Amino acid sequence: MTGRVVVARRRPTRVWAGFALPGIGWLIAFFLVPIYAVLAVAFGQIEPLLKTPQPAWNPLDWDYAAMGRVLDRIVGGDLGTVFIRTFWFVALALVGCIAIGYPVAYFVARKAQRSRGILLALLVLPFWISYLMRMLAWTNLLQLDGFVNKALGWLGLMDTPHNWLDGDWPTVVIGLVYGYVPFFILALYAALERIDGRLLEASRDLGASAFSTFLRVTLPLSVPGLLAASVITVLPMFGDYYTNTYLTSGSPRTGMIGNQIEYYLRGSSQPQTGASLVLVLMAFLFVLMLYYLVTTVRQQRQAER
Amino acid sequence: MSLLRSDRASSRRSSRRGSRGRAHGLAVVTWLYVLWSLLPVLVAVRISLNSGKSRSAFQPMSFRWYWTDPTLSVWHDDSLQTALSNTLTLACLTMLIATPVGVAMAIGLHRWRGKVSGAANGLMLLPIVTPEIVFGVALFLVFTQVYKGLPGGITTQLLGHVTFTLSFVVVIIRGRLAAIGTQYEEAARDLGASRFQAIRLVLLPLLGPAIFASLMTVFATSVDDFVISSFLSTGASTETVPIKIYSGARAGSTPALNALATVMLVVTLVAVGLAALAMRMMNRRSSGTDGAAVGLTGMSI
């Protein structure tokens, strides 16, 4: 304890603040200011002739009319359908991620012995493969004369080839699972690997079967990791607009919130509506983002103690 | 280490008690997953070697879509080549800026105690939890409404990529800093090194594996990014490989798209392989903990 006091005196805090300064400045200029720009545009005005946004930088000048219109369209309007659809896609994809990811992460973290190293390498491999290349691969497989239809016909499950890329929601959900499950698995793996093996041994020594040890010890201990892994996969999924567009040739039947945001900002020039939608999305995800921040800071503190 | 050993012992015992069957089932599920996750990509690579135009079936192999075809191959189609060079330029520049800024920020945040540093730490973590589309929209609006003087395209894309990857570097380096502790640097200081000498001669070499892991992560993240590049792209000359893949699939395209993706894949894997090799050599000399694990767990919390 005294050692720490001496050391603290030796390190003037100003030097360390100086180290962090370029990074902080960068994040203020290119993260905080941009986020504030979203607010200023959403609550600003539209130039009547050119239809360009006139951001309101002073919060006292904020005009909430555009946001009101967007909220009206969400509550029982056309945008509401899109929000609900997005929610369902993400929820189903998360269920898929847990169903596939938990057994895999559990096996590699706790059961695999000789195959562990090679399995870990193979689990990390998708990180180095571009996300869109992995989606491109699925568009190859799902073509009308592609391997998926061929395999289904060969197995006798389907007589006529089905056009999977024509706006089917299962294609989108499977695509989301395929895209995000590697992230889920690695996050969960890190948590499962940290579980103290002595606790499991104690459970076995006290007479619990392997299955009830899993159910009563491993599973409860893995809940925080499961939550963190879910948050880290769900957050990007809510903002996804390319997976569904790519796998359904942009069918409106599978449109998500991200598509609407992209459309209002780039497709048609109504940045005010787009910015308002971004704010609604952020408000919606706020709790999840906060959960991640709090748990991460807590872990950092523990690691540095 | 002892944790690992006790874990092994317990699993050995459990297999003796007859739970091997269950672990067997899990092994099958795991290998099936690995197959499912990688097989489609291998099929896509094979299709890039087709000699015909089919994007769904295997045809006799050729390098037509890489360079033989005089107009449509990656080598001869200007737009594909531009996309490739844009992506690589962007990734290398992002790496060169984000890594040093991030390493300095990690060291600073790790040691600087106080209320402001807590806020700075929260600010650093925010980009990780922000969905990419929010990031893309925010940057798009800020470059069209506030920083209007900046040339669009690669400059703004670079600024966006650095912002997006900076936090990954800080998280990875901080994980390693916590593991290193302060004793080595203190020893150097006691032996007469100045503060900056201690950082340069002691701390940075100890951080080596984590810095390599950061470089790889930044490179892969930048190369992979679609949303930010797309929101900040100003036209055909500022397209990247992911944008090309995304827009190419709608208009009836050729296996040249697969070839482009494959080239990118090979470049990334070679870069990662070289970095891993360099890391292993450094590890052998300094016997630090494995940086691959740092990079791996750094990405996921």
Mean pLDDT of chain A: 85
Count of alpha and pi helical runs of chain B: 12
Oligomer: heterodimer
Low-confidence stretches of chain A: 1-9
Any idea how many domains of chain A? 1
Order of helices and strands of chain B: HHHHHHHHHHHH
Q: Which class best fits the helix and strand makeup of chain B? A: mainly alpha
Distance between the termini of chain A: 12 Å
Rounded mean pLDDT score of chain B: 81
Number of domains of chain B: 2
| Helical residues, percent of chain A | over 70%
Describe this structure in words.
The complex is a heterodimer of chains A (305) and B (301). Chain A has helices at 2-10, 13-42, 65-74, 78-111, 116-124, 131-141, 147-154, 169-194, 197-205, 210-238, 242-247, 257-267, 271-304, and strands at 45-46, 53-54. Chain A has 305 residues and is mainly α. Chain A has a two-stranded antiparallel ribbon with strand order 1-2. In chain A, a hairpin with a 6-residue loop joins β1 (45-46) and β2. The radius of gyration of chain A is 24 Å and the shape is globular. Chain B folds into 2 domains: 1-38, no CATH class; 72-299, MetI-like (MetI-like fold). Chain B is built from 12 helices and no strands. Chain B has helices spanning 2-48, 64-68, 78-111, 115-129, 132-145, 154-180, 183-190, 195-224, 227-232, 241-248, 256-286, 291-299. In chain B, α6 (154-180) crosses α12. The longest helix of chain B is centred in the first third of the chain and has 47 residues, at 2-48. Classes of the chains: A mainly alpha (305), B mainly alpha (301). At the A-B interface, α1, α2, α4, α5 and α6 of A face α1, α3, α4, α5 and α6 of B.
